[in-house]
Amino acid sequence: MQYVLYYFIAVSVIGAIVCIYDKLAAARGWRRVPERTLFFWALIGGGPGVYATMLIIRHKTLHHIFMLGIPAIMILQGAIIVGIYNILYMKGLL
């Protein structure tokens, strides 16, 4: 079970790094990270890292799709995790 936590921490850190890179790219005129890439990292479990970084460095905070979409992804993932945990617990696998 602790490996699941390590996974979410790792993808959150990577998602945060991608978000920071995109902010730097925007400021310096470099090639930008596609928005779908930021959503990809959120979808595979990096939502907390992406969202926290967005708020801290003020990146994509004016884009409603990000300010609503990333938290929605995290809520959905949380519900799925709780559901899976309950199923496994009821079957005696945890």
Quick take:
With 94 residues, this protein is an all-alpha fold.
Structural class: mainly alpha
**End-to-end CA span:** 9 Å
Give the number of DSSP strands. 0
Tally the helices: what do you get?
3
Low-confidence stretches: none
Sheet with the most strands, sense and barrel status: none
Q: Domains counted in the coordinates: how many? A: 1
Global outline:
elongated
Write down the Rg.
15 Å
Q: SSE string, helix = H, strand = E?
A: HHH
**Beta-strand content estimate:** under 5%
The helical percent reads over 70%
Average predicted confidence as pLDDT: 96
What does this structure look like?
By secondary structure, the protein is mostly helical. The protein has one domain (2-90). It is built from three helices and no strands. The termini are close together. The relative contact order is 0.14. The mean pLDDT is 96. This is DUF1294 domain-containing protein.
Q: What distinguishing features does this structure have?
A:
94 residues, mainly alpha, 3 helices
